[in-house]
Records
---
Amino acid sequence: MPNRDMRRARCAKMKFFDRDSIMSNTLKPQLADAVKTAMRAKDAPRLGTLRFLQAAIKQKEVDERRELDDAEVIAIIEKQVKQRRESIAAFEQAGRAETAEQEKAELTVLQEFLPQAAAAEEVEAAIASAIAQVNGQGITGAPAMGKVMALVKAELAGRADMSAVSAQVKARLM
């Protein structure tokens, strides 16, 4: 039995099995359920995408040696979505329509786990508010871009395409 106690102490020290953090997460169990559903339905493309996402999440947890919360999982999903969008553009430019369609299918699977997208009006309001706040600090023009984007990203995390938001902010500041 001392071996078991040593293992428990080690796990508690690494905080991998912190019950409170496990209970507060909702995305990871939702993802696991989606994997099980895809397995039962024998939906291989969806299953592959979900497993790839699970692997990315697990890799981050192992790297940081702690359990990730929903915000961090959403950040990983956003990164995967951004990669898919870039791949789709590259494949379409190269004339590889079949591969681009496969990437689009993966993109739709990943977007299911992101929060509902913000409306255009909400994005505009967030940008206007952030610009007003930064201008109130006396920062204008190009140097304000980073500060505005930081505020907007905090407000719209996971609910808007940040590259499109960045373009809108740049157009308003310049």
---
Amino acid sequence: MATRLGKKGSDLGTMYRGRTGQWAWIAHRVTGVGLILFLFAHIVDTAMIGWGPEAYDRVTSVYHNPVVRLIELGLIVFVIYHAFNGLRIIAIDFWPKATRYDRPLFLGTITLVVLASAPIAYIMTKQAIELFD
């Protein structure tokens, strides 16, 4: 079995262990890209007013689709996570000792996201289900 730097082959898969900071970083980037993509789509659908009310109404009628409503729910969760994680990053930037508490801060961020998203998810899911009827 091949070895590298005195490690056994079975240990090679454990050289890098992603911790909460890595997952928070990835989620922050993913939510940021998602928000940018939504912003682009929003600018395009708003610009449709230039082609007249009929074109604008056709484009915005997509938002009455239940699946799109659930995608909007995902967008809201993205915004909430991105905001709370941004506050976590600010805390770590301005209070260097906060790096010792990265895991509790990340878990607190996730808890706040779930608590803030729950009522919104209830309302939006209920509205999306009503659109199926």
